[in-house]
Amino acid sequence: MGRVCYQCMYQSWYLSVDTQMFVVGLLLVYCVCRWPGWGYSFTTILGAASLLVPFLTTWWQRADGFLIPFSDVTGDVISSRYFQEIYIRTENRMTPYLIGLMVGIIMCKTKKSSFRLNNVSFSQ
Predict the structure, then answer these.
(1) Which residues contact 72 (CB under 8 A, 6 or more apart)?
(2) Membrane-spanning regions, if any (predicted)?
């Protein structure tokens, strides 16, 4: 992935991450539909790796666990070391995408079953 500091809009880093995750998602859904046993196993392993990789990256680089809004970061987010090397990396943004993908697969698989969640109401 190229350096973000050369982009005209610093938010556009997310387009490359989302595109890469879309391709990974297509492959995972295909594997789950074609070979359910292997697909679920591979998705679980990838999910565990998506939790482990950001932890190890943060630990090895001795970085903060999240983007702390100090003046040197908020003034120029793009040139922040944390933003460049940790925050925008695809492997560090994979967990939420995989969680959404897994929930979608579960919802699709349980749509035709008789399994239903009870309605829960909250009162004040």
Answers:
(1) 80
(2) 12-33, 40-60
State the helix-helix crossing angle for 94-110 and 36-60, rounded to 10 degrees.
Answer: 160
Dihedral of alpha carbons 117, 51, 25, 5, sign: positive
How many whole angstroms from its chain centre is CA 70? Answer: 25
Q: Are 55 and 99 in contact (CB under 8 A)?
A: no
pLDDT, tens digit only, all 124 positions of the chain: 455 556 667 677 888 899 999 999 999 999 999 999 999 999 999 999 999 998 998 889 888 777 666 665 566 667 777 777 787 888 888 999 999 999 988 888 887 777 666 665 555 5
Whether 43 and 25 have beta carbons less than 8 Å apart is answered as: no
Chain position carrying tokens 């008789």: 114
- CA-to-CA distance for 5 and 69, rounded, in angstroms? 18
